[in-house]
Amino acid sequence: MTNISRILVVAATDRELAAAAGWRTLCCGVGPVDAAAATAAAVALARPVAILHIGIAGTRRARALPPATLVIGTEARYHDLSVPSHLAPSVVVTSPTLVAAAARAFPDAPRLAIGTSGRIGGTIDTDVEAMEGYAVLRAAQMAGVPAIEVRVISNEIEQEDRKLWQFEAAFAAVHAATPRLVEEVARCAS
């Protein structure tokens, strides 16, 4: 088992970061640009053995995932750039080892592709949407560091009234899940 101090936990905001209990944390900022830049800089300085990207997300109404549902990302899809994949990839497949680790911690959690867009509703072929996942995973991939994105549902993407979004329940679920996720990631990281 790797020492948990070698695991980097990344979230867009301080509200999504659980208090560190031996692991490193990075508040990468909201959106794909800040997330990629901050993650790349942190990887260069900290040299983590694995990255756990956590946070809240929206889901499509048709998927029927209730608030506070934890979702394990099997891949991150970037929806803001429409160029051929030979010019810029738009998908990062998550390490199967890290997906298995997260599934050990939360065996009932759905395992799905998670879309990344800089705007709400900017994804088209994913049931879960956030703003930083692809950027964090791509920065990790380019540095040769395994990474996984795990999200907790806070809202339906189609729900425009943010007063109805379940932020507090989602933040609480992220904080509760983080220690178990870090422990499982550390078991398989080398």
From TrEMBL:
Coiled coil: none annotated. GO terms for cellular component: cytosol. InterPro entries: Nucleoside_phosphorylase_d (IPR000845), Nucleoside_phosphorylase_sf (IPR035994). GO terms for biological process: L-methionine salvage from S-adenosylmethionine; nucleoside metabolic process. Signal peptide: none annotated. It holds the Pfam family PNP_UDP_1. Residues 27-104, 127-185 form the Nucleoside phosphorylase domain. Gene3D superfamilies: Nucleoside phosphorylase domain. It comes from the Bacteria. GO terms for molecular function: adenosylhomocysteine nucleosidase activity; methylthioadenosine nucleosidase activity. This is 5'-methylthioadenosine/S-adenosylhomocysteine nucleosidase. The lineage of its organism: Bacteria, Pseudomonadati, Acidobacteriota, Vicinamibacteria, Vicinamibacterales.
